[in-house]
Amino acid sequence: MSQVQPIFSYRKHWAKRFGVAPMLPMSRAEMDQLGWDSCDIVLVTGDAYIDHPSFGMAIIGRLLEAQGFRVGIIAQPDWSSAEPFKVLGAPNLFFGVTAGNMDSMVNRYTSDRRLRHNDSYTPGGEGGRRPDRAVIVYAQRCREAFKATPIVIGGIEASLRRIAHYDYWSDTVRRSILADAKADLLVFGNAERAIVDIAHQVARGAQPRELLGIRGTATVLDQVPAGWTVLDLSDPDAQAVTTDAPREQTVVRLPAYEAVKGDPLLYAHASRLLHQESNPGNARALVQRHGDKEIFLSPPPIPLETAEMDFVYGLPYARAPHPGYGDARIPAWEMIRFSVNIMRGCFGGCSFCSITEHEGRIIQSRSEASILREIEEIRDRVPGFTGVISDLGGPTANMYRLACKDKAIEAVCRRPSCVFPDICKNLDTDHSALIGLYRKARALPGIKKITIASGLRYDLALRSPEYVKELVTHHVGGYLKIAPEHTEAGPLAKMMKPPIGAYDKFKALFEKYSKEAGKEQYLIPYFIAAHPGTTDEDMMNLALWLKRNNFRADQVQTFLPSPMAVATAMYHSGRNPIRPIRRAGGEIVASAKGLKQRRLHKAFLRYHDAENWPVLREALKRMGRADLIGPAKHQLVPAWQPAGTGSAGGEGARAGRKHGTQKFVTQHSRAETRRAPTRRPPG
Q1: What strand order describes the sheet that includes 94-97?
Q2: pLDDT of 409-461, one tens digit each?
Q3: Cβ(514)–Cβ(520) under 8 Å?
Q4: Does the bond joining 421 to the residue before it have cis omega, within 30 degrees of 0?
Q5: Are strands 522-529 and 557-558 parallel, antiparallel or unpaired?
Q6: Which among 513, 439, 382, 432 is positioned nearest to 52, based on CA atoms?
Q7: How far is CA 503 from CA 21, 486, 510, 517, 606, in A?
Q8: Cβ atoms within 10 Å, residue 147
């Protein structure tokens, strides 16, 4: 991989003399207290400002502060006018705009496009404090507030919309968010390297829209600059094209926005090209025509080294919400206040997940010493700490320090997943570093217990029975979340998930070690309804599996096509971009798109709810499986209907608990796109 300047090695900006702010200011009064006449950079976010490294704006803000810049925060502004965007004055360098830790559309709407009434990232959990498509709206208001000030957009919403993308909520293909927001520059992926470089270059007089060579950025150009060789791969049926030009000066042409908007097959092809150019070791730049402009994307950012990860997580966070929120409860903060991020990235490559697209598949791990210091800091500084660390994790619980055995192989690999269809022979699956970390962490004075709340990649854990024993014996708080997602081979292949047999093997180990430890503990499996490639029969078989295994899901997840995911391309195009796309040939993928079928798939997951029995009986008869209607254990739903259920009576949950399986484990809901601090199963 390219050699890069460590993020802590830049010469600091002159404003370093102002020192460290106890909290990054959100008002002029706070700026006055710090002795500031202006901010160098103002960050606008759709989340409440919580000065903790699980929140993107806190990381970026503190990192820029460590470079010597004065950074202010505008959190959850009223977007009805430009006035709230003027509260800190015009920043000297640029506005940094993000929707927050979550995509604003996923945050506000369910998979059935219904409005959510709560928001975990808002004081009091109140919904409606951020607009739809927040990055676009915030950028527009920043431009209205200070027309001449450059705007840099980033975060997961911008990252996953960096090229033309299918938008589930409007059922259309939208332009790159960079074009719609009319921003000067877009930063995608983990932004530390890019934002530090951008800030220093702009401080030296550069304009953000002119910064072409920074990895992990996208910009709007009139044409591809001179000196670049354009490799036109926009036609999936064209003869293979190659070039002798250096990779560093080659740009791959994707099908244009207008083409993918009108042709779902070309959309699938563009998705395939994008994901093939995702390894920072061998990725080439990409370009996509939008009208008379070019959206030019540099290769993905180089992952942070361990020393840089330690630097980022060792910055002087207050580890608390801004005092302006008073005693208001912020659910996301309550969830992560006693947890520690130990790594980033995920090499699972699950087709429906946004983690790999955003954070990359190369694992970035902190040092053991850095993690232990943070645990001690929580113990000594965070009010309300009772001795229990709620999580040591990240996107996954058990990818800490796992990597390709050969860096040369890693640099040229184009596999979308290191664990599908099987665990790669070049992947180091040794969990000993994580086991050692667990042991040292729980031995710290004042630490009573450490639970692991991040989702476990159980197919990897099977490679280390010692790890499973360590986890089950010491770090499970009664329940352990894992995500088989389905039981049937067809959907699992489209999800890029392991066969259900891996779950069965892990369950056997989990129960064995729980028994040896003298503990009664349970697995909480998560499943997805209506994923591309899932038939009604697949959902019926999953429901039968759930009943045989005495599982009742109180809340379930229906597939939500989030921007840029491979599964979203399947949903929109009916093609599988994991495989080559051809007009004649290629793999066809059917999806449950109508509301009736999507609700049927969800009803199968809640087979025990009497409210769902009428629709399930109707479906079973249509499928020729009326034999599954009746009172026997092998049957799915009874032939009778409790009074007051099967309509809008609202008694289904109680009736479902009375009739059906006797033993159940509550399954909590999870968002369709990862909410970074809330720790859920990988993929």
Answers
A1: 71-75, 41-45, 94-97, 151-153, 185-187, 217-221, 293-297, 285-290, 250-253, 229-232
A2: 999 999 999 999 999 999 999 999 999 999 999 999 999 999 999 999 999 99
A3: yes
A4: yes
A5: parallel
A6: 382
A7: 48, 10, 10, 21, 20
A8: 8
Please say whether the beta carbons of 359 and 346 come within 8 A: yes
For residue range 594-627, what is the model confidence (pLDDT) as tens digits? 999 999 999 999 999 999 999 999 999 999 999 9
How far is 93 from 199, CA to CA, in rounded Å?
7
Q: What is the pLDDT of residues 572-594, one digit of tens each?
A: 999 999 999 999 988 999 999 99
Q: What is the pLDDT of residues 298-354, one digit of tens each?
A: 999 999 999 999 999 999 999 999 999 999 999 999 999 999 999 999 999 999 998
CA distance readout (Å), 127 to 79, 132, 277: 15, 12, 37
**What distance separates the 2 farthest-apart alpha carbons in the chain?**
77
Dig out the tokens for 384 from the structure: 């309300």
Q: Tens digit of pLDDT for each residue in 223-239?
A: 999 999 999 999 999 87
CA distances from 241 to 233, 244, 272, 277 (A): 7, 11, 16, 16
286, β-bridge pairs: 252, 297
Q: How far apart are CA 271 and CA 269, in angstroms?
A: 5
Query: DSSP for 95-141?
Result: EEE---SS-HHHHHB-TTSPBPSB-TTSGGGBS-SS-TTHHHHHHHH
**Rounded Cα–Cα distance for residues 481 and 682 (Å):** 10
Residue by residue, what is the 3-state secondary structure of 268-311? Answer: HHHHHHHHHCCCCCCCCEEEEEECCEEEEECCCCCCCCHHHHHH
CA distance 659 to 610: 8
| Both structure tokens of 68 | 């010597």
| DSSP single-letter state for residue 56 | H
> Is 404 buried (19+), middle (13-18) or exposed (0-12) by CB count in 10 A?
buried
Q: Which two tokens stand for residue 138?
A: 């915030």
pLDDT at 659 over 60: no
pTM > 0.90: yes or no? yes
Question: pLDDT of 78-129, one tens digit each?
Answer: 999 999 999 999 999 999 999 999 999 999 999 999 999 999 999 999 999 9
Q: What residues does each domain of the chain span?
A: 14-222+292-297, 227-286, 338-608+661-678
The whole-angstrom separation of Cα 208 and Cα 589 is 41
Return the CATH class of domain 338-608+661-678: alpha beta
Which homologous superfamily does the CATH classification assign to the domain defined by 14-222+292-297?
A: Response regulator (3.40.50.2300)
